[in-house]
Amino acid sequence: MQSRRTFFKTAGLGAAVAASASFPTELLSWAEPSRTPQPGGPILLNSNENAYGPFPSVLALANPFQGVNRYPDHSDAIAERLAAQHKVDVSRVVTGCGSGEILRVAAYAFTGRGRKLVMAAPTFEGIGRYGEAVDAEVDHVPLTTNFTHDLGAMLQAAGSDAGLVYICNPNNPTGNVTPRAEIENFINKLPKKTYVLIDEAYHDFVPVGADYVSFLERPVDDPRVIVARTFSKVYGLAGMRLGYGISAKNTSEEMRKHRLQFSINVFVTRCALTAMDDSAGYRQSVQRNAADRDEFTRQAAARNLKVIPSSTNFVMMHTGRPIQGLIDYFEKNNIKIGRPFPPLDTYARISLGNPSEMQQFWRVWDGMPKSN
């Protein structure tokens, strides 16, 4: 007779095999390499996750599974809480299964055949795939020489037929900020029918003094602007999938038409609401990330390695080596780092791990054979 643990392990494996057998792998080609976190498994510095996990208050929940046999409440308690936090009407909030769903519904609502999507290169690629899925032309505009969005070139690319412009700020994979004033000026010059999605996934990690102001903290009176946020980063809930977008009421209504029914589950709702009440846990997460980022920068400087100034929980570093060879070297040493991001073919994106993980990263780096 199978034990309960054996049964669930077997059932889970079967489900995973069935899903992978029927789902085209090329659709996931832009995503991170597969990962198998387990004791003795690789150190994961490749996906910009929160290495410390959820807040202590979330881990201390007595029974987070209570009521998971019931469908989620249609009231969407997360949307109501977010509306209160950002001082907007709840009709302006769209929640989703990660901020990835927000990107998808925006692409479906505002792009398509004859309605172009404009985005940087490199940046977070997901929305480009969603645009292609609805037959939109996707225009990839290279970053400037200082790795900010080339807003002048993006404006030219938008022309008169762009349905949506995507700006990830701070940008993934470079980690740096495009100045707020430049983005506002860019928005004002866009055609009146072109929407702008500003992805603020890494907002919470931006250090004080950066040339940055959130479009939620200081909103603009423009119905074309959509701001996306996630619970994956500062809250450490990447595996539970929760994100949201805030925009004008009519804009949100258009996006909501493409939202999955019951895309927010009972489990993540309970954990997210608990995390939002934990101001001490939030402060600790922000402060710990800042300390880890500063330490990484110091270690890089000690080795004469140049980094792009980061406002996130990862750092992009010029290595002077072909990136694929570096990825292979670290993987052989049980560490996974970020994938290639062309055309930055000698840059490595390193997600910040905990101190012991980062010490191991630098030990492996220092043991690397000298390049020819």
Mean pLDDT, all residues: 90
Give the total of beta strands. 12
Number of domains: 2
Give the CATH H-level superfamily of the largest domain. Answer: Type I PLP-dependent aspartate aminotransferase-like (Major domain)
Write structural notes for this entry.
This protein is an alpha/beta fold. The protein folds into two domains: 31-48 and 281-366, Alpha-Beta Complex (Aspartate Aminotransferase, domain 1), CATH 3.90.1150.10; 58-276, Type I PLP-dependent aspartate aminotransferase-like (Major domain) (Aspartate Aminotransferase, domain 2). It is built from twelve helices and twelve strands. Strands 2-8-7-6-5-3-4 form a seven-stranded mixed β-sheet, sandwiched between helices. A three-stranded antiparallel β-sheet has the order 9-10-12. Strands 1-11 form a two-stranded parallel sheet. The longest helix is centred in the last third of the chain and has 24 residues, at 279-302. It is globular. The N and C termini lie far apart (59 Å).
What's the short version?
With 372 residues, the protein is α/β, with parallel strands linked by helices. The chain contains 12 helices and 12 strands. The longest helix is centred in the last third of the chain and has 24 residues.
Task: Outline the secondary-structure elements.
Elements lengths: L3 H19 L20 E3 L10 H4 L17 H10 L6 E4 L2 H12 L5 E6 L4 H8 L4 E5 L8 H8 L3 E7 L11 H10 L5 E5 L25 E6 L12 E4 L2 H8 L9 H11 L2 H24 L3 E2 L6 E5 L4 H10 L2 E3 L9 E5 L3 H12 L6
Parallel strand pairs: 1-11, 3-4, 3-5, 5-6, 6-7
Antiparallel strand pairs: 2-8, 7-8, 9-10, 10-12
Helix pairs in contact: 4-5
